[in-house]
């Protein structure tokens, strides 16, 4: 067997062992504290209300657009990130405190980050990433 192939096979064994030791995650769910659909007409363009009022939305979006810094971090995650507006969250996940980040597993939903942890990121996508990874490790999840 070629040396490169042996290294590749070893890498696959390590990667698969890591995946087996972690709890399966279907997706991350970001539950925002403000509805993006609350819009106003401003100079002919639609702008969302309340970006600054929701710490999580302020980190991930500017207006309707995903922030570049967050976008590059999101693409490195091993799971899909799904965003829920508060009105949808109230129907699907009654009683959940918002904003928050949840993980959806085959057995249901678990809190990953609460509002205080999100506020602690102080608007930084890098700090949010670190907080997500730290909390995921504590819960036995793997995100990267």
Explain how this protein is built.
This protein is α+β, with helices and mostly antiparallel strands. The chain has one domain (23-139). 42% of the residues lie in helices and 24% in strands. The protein has six helices and eight strands; from the N terminus they run αβββαββαβαββαα. The chain has helices at residues 3-21, 55-60, 68-76, 86-92, 115-119, 125-139; strands spanning 27-31, 39-42, 45-48, 61-62, 65-66, 80-84, 100-105, 108-113. The strands form three sheets. The chain has a four-stranded mixed β-sheet with strand order 6-1-7-8. A hairpin with a 2-residue loop joins β7 (100-105) and β8. The model is unreliable at 14-20 and 39-45 (pLDDT under 50).
Topology (SSEs and partners):
Layout: H1 3-21, E1 27-31, E2 39-42, E3 45-48, H2 55-60, E4 61-62, E5 65-66, H3 68-76, E6 80-84, H4 86-92, E7 100-105, E8 108-113, H5 115-119, H6 125-139
Parallel strand pairs: 1-6
Antiparallel strand pairs: 1-7, 2-3, 4-5, 7-8
Report the mean per-residue pLDDT as an integer.
Answer: 78
Cα-atom Rg, whole angstroms?
18 Å
Write down the secondary-structure element order.
HEEEHEEHEHEEHH
Number of strands: 8
Broad shape: globular
Beta content comes to: 15-25%
Give structural attributes.
144 residues; alpha+beta; two-stranded antiparallel ribbon; 6 helices; globular
Short description:
The chain has helices at 3-21, 55-60, 68-76, 86-92, 115-119, 125-139, and strands at 27-31, 39-42, 45-48, 61-62, 65-66, 80-84, 100-105, 108-113. With 144 residues, the chain is α+β, with helices and mostly antiparallel strands.
